[in-house]
Structure formats: C-alpha cells, structure tokens
Amino acid sequence: MQIAAIQMVSTPSVEHNIERARTLVAQAAAQGAELVALPEYFCLMGRADRDKLGAAERLLQGPIQATLASMAREHGIWLVGGTLPLIPEDGPFERVRNSSLVFGPDGELAARYDKMHLFRFHDGERGYDEAATLEPGTAPAAFELRDRAGETWRVGLSVCYDLRFPELYRALMQPRPCDLLLVPSAFTYPTGQAHWELLLRARAVENQCYVLAPAQGGRHENGRRTWGHTLLADPWGEVLAQRADEGEGVVGGAIERARLEAVRGQLPALAHRVL
Questions:
Q1: What are the tens digits of pLDDT across the range 197-211?
Q2: Which residues form the CN hydrolase domain (predicted)?
C-alpha cells in the first residue's frame, strides 16, 4: 500500500493552513497514496499557546473537521488529521485535547486518539509546558483499514512526545501487532536534532513494524523552529524516505506485507516477549 506523510510550516492562520493542507494532500493522493497523514498542529501554530482554545472545535463540528472529512472523501483516501484542538465533552473548558482524527475514504470518522504524554521542556533559556493548555488523553488507540487491493492493515496512533514512551507502543501491539505506527509531530529543533530519527527507528525495530512520521519543519511566525525531517521507516529500522530540509512537502513510500512477515519470521522478537 502506498502511504504519504505531509510536512508543513503552519502559521497562526487556520484558513491559510487548511489551504496548504488541501494542496499537499491532493499532491500525495495524485502520487497514489491511499493513506495520508498530516503533522501535529497542522491547522494552527499560534502566536501564544492559548490560541488553541480559540480555534478548538467540538467533535464532528467545525470547519477543520469538515475539511478533513471532505478531503478524505474527495480523494478516496484514509486521512489522518495530524492533530487539532478538541473541546472536552462536558461543561466549560480551560484546556483542550490535542486530538488525532482519522477519516475514511467515505469521509466518516474512523478513529480518534488524544495525545497522552504532554511535553515539558526547559534548557535554561527556553521553556514550554503543554499541560498549561492541554489535558491528556487516557487510552491508546488503533484502527484497521482495508486498502484498495483488499489487504487489511492495523494502524496505531500516537503524537510527538509519545515517541519517548515505548510502553505506549507495546500497548498498541495488543491484541495483535500493528503493521504501521503513525507519529504526527512538531518536534522542537534541539530535541529533534538530537533524538528524532533515533527514536523513530527504535520504535520501528522494537515493534517490527513500519513507522510514518509527518512533521512540522521550519521557522514559524510565532518564533518557533521545528525540526521536520518527516520520514518513513521499515520494520528493520531502515529509513525508506525522508525529507532532508525544512519547508513543506510530501514524503511517500510503500508498506509491504512480505517485508513485515520476513522481519518477524527471521527474528520473532514479538513472540519472545516475557513482560
């Protein structure tokens, strides 16, 4: 199955970001991708953290989700909406969920995952704390899709900082292993430079599955610089495709059942787990 990850440099304008996403998703679909994944915060990189609250939508309401559904339906693809801010279901809110929504080729919502691990970083000069505006999710999420050839694939969802917590991915390998793990991200430049590829390849190797990681990559209007380097890795940890520079673009490749079975058959590490 052909898949693709979108790299963006999102801005404080939701309308602008949606239009860029439309263009890039169309490009990926034209290249034959059946699953396309957008990066974390594809719809908004605000000037302040609390800008998320103003752009937040209720589940299955609002222009961001309507656009994702229409793009999936228009191109007949599985579309992973990076993340967008979702309002909690009950009562007034001071924080939102950072949610990854998956829409099927029919435009219907197929899966939802709320980011569980919230990033906090301080290097003595720069500081960032997601918990100020976000509340964490409470459960892992995976879904199954059937591609155009009739093959069924199990896909695990995660977001950015989740990448540092291998126990989440172990949980996603139950009740049966995922074939593909998705990691839409907005890694900071210093943490990405140090750990991005290392962690993605480790998750691929230890779970013996493909990993697709769409990313924010470049200098944003709010002053942030994100690492980018959107990539696709195979179950042996080999990088099949990667964007080497900053700026928006499409990174695509194929996932193959035979490759999964070969890696798991030659070194059946998943079957050797004790804990």
A1: 999 999 999 999 999
A2: 1-257
